[in-house]
Amino acid sequence: MTTIDINGLYFSYDPSHPILSGIDLHFKDSGMICIVGPNGVGKSTLVRCLNGLLKPTSGTISVNGNDIGEMTPREIADIMGFVPATTTIAFPMSVADSVMIALDRKDKWHTSKEDLAKVYLSLDVMRMRDLALRSCNELSAGQTQKVALCRGLVRNSEILILDEPTANLDIKHQIFVSDFMHELSMASGCTIIMISHDLNIAARYADQIVVMSKPGVIYDVGRPEDVITEKMIREVYDVDAEVMMKDGRPYVFLNSALNW
Amino acid sequence: MNGGTSITKQAVDEWLHGEYPELEEDLEEYHRFNHLKYIFIVACVIVAILTAGYALSIGEYNISFLQTYELLWQHLTGSVPEDMSIQDYVVWTLRSPRVLGGLFAGAALSVGGVMMQGLLKNPLADTYTTGISSGASLGATLAICAGFTVIAGQYSLVINAFLFSLIPMAVILSVSKLKSASVTTIIMAGIAVMYLFNAVTSLLKIWAESAALSAVFEWSVGDLTGLKWEEVAVMGMVVIPGLIILYLMSEKLNAMTMGDEQARSLGINVETFRLVSLLTTSLVTAAVVCFTGLIGFIGLVCPHIVRMFIGSDNRLLLPASAAFGAAFLLICDVIGRVIIAPSTLQVGIITSFIGGPVFLYLIIKQRRTGW
Question: Do B27 and A182 touch (CB under 8 A)?
Fold first, then answer.
């Protein structure tokens, strides 16, 4: 059972410009959680605080009852995987080796058959197996993003945080990756936390949606059909949209921006 | 409720059950791909050993290539024949320190370059980026021009160079305590200290006598001439454990090359790792530089040349760079000894003379667009 408790979370680089202003969130075996919201509302900051990459100004975050602030990077990495929006490898290595970096191996100096199989399996799942021995700097942005997802997958984490994992992917891969993560959370019981700008992807695949708005606050949390509404899109995004239901899930038709 | 498509269900099933039909073939292909990298490392080691043998054989007293190995073996096992004592003296006492010192220096500077480039995520970083060269230069210049030494005696210049070469690193560590030890902080602090030290060095040179100026220049070029066993022993006592420590860090260095955030999310304490590895690299480099002077090129370019052949997995790159750097430095020293024999050219000049064009050729020839 995975529980995530965020209480009174504040974060700012400059006290006069808070990025997160009192976030309270509680999840228990929530499957796939999508965080949505306009640019600059603190979505990435929130997941970085959750993963211990940023230290909150105040407030607490605990996972399974353990305070993240008291945990070492190693302990956090044992339960949480993180796939950033962009990754640049300073000196590119082969795709397979770059995925192997993320593997949590018992023997760091010997690549066992099981380790290698796991790496290749993740590449196979993301349809990147043919490029396993290719250098990372020869990949497209979309392929690079899929390799980053492979790095997230191979750790088999209890919680996997994905920061805009579909940003560089074509529509087929956007659907596949989102669907895969949703299916994985159902089949393995892991919790997926995914930031997305695509409301329809979030509406279609998330079990829970967190809507964030300025100035770094939670606007709403709940099931997609309860959260994705025309009112929410107007108030949070300043966009006129129509929301219809399809297969029990909301579907958003965007009309126009209300202000610029 | 949304249901996954058959394709994604199959993919999840495949992932959770851990196999797919062509897995064995793929694993074999990966191992074949990696075997070539091991062959490169072994080839570099063999070249280094052969060059060492040749380096021991050349000089005013002629000893055959194969005889050098025999003499080394006889010396180590205490079975040198009486009629070979002169050859033994030439090989063991006169030439071996220079050759072993060259191997240590080449390996240390090359591995130092790998570490600095990986830690600072900067292809232009080398062992001198944290200001070691400017510190060592100031230490040596103070000893030669101003007669200022930390301790008196035979090794006053060496100890001056060693201690001063570590001052920039100490400043960087102090600045990192105040600010976060980010890549930019480290590079900028290194540059600030470097300019300050260079200014003092220039000032001392302006005031210096011509003989002292010439001595400072000779020291700064970098040379293996005149290395003694006791110096090489000290060098080895720092370099060998240092290189072992750095090798043990190579697996984490892989994660560091993906950026601080990614490395931290993989469980690495980024700041601590960076400071410990920088300190170790600085100590190893300082232990070489204080005896040999400034040997350029090795730390900057050898890692790049090795990357062209075996890629950037630091678990292989570190030992490969050590072997390549050692072989390369020794080859350059041999060339410096024979090209205008009986005079010699300093190895620091040869490394840049040969390395520069070779590196340019490889840059033009390589298929890939980046590192």
Answer: no
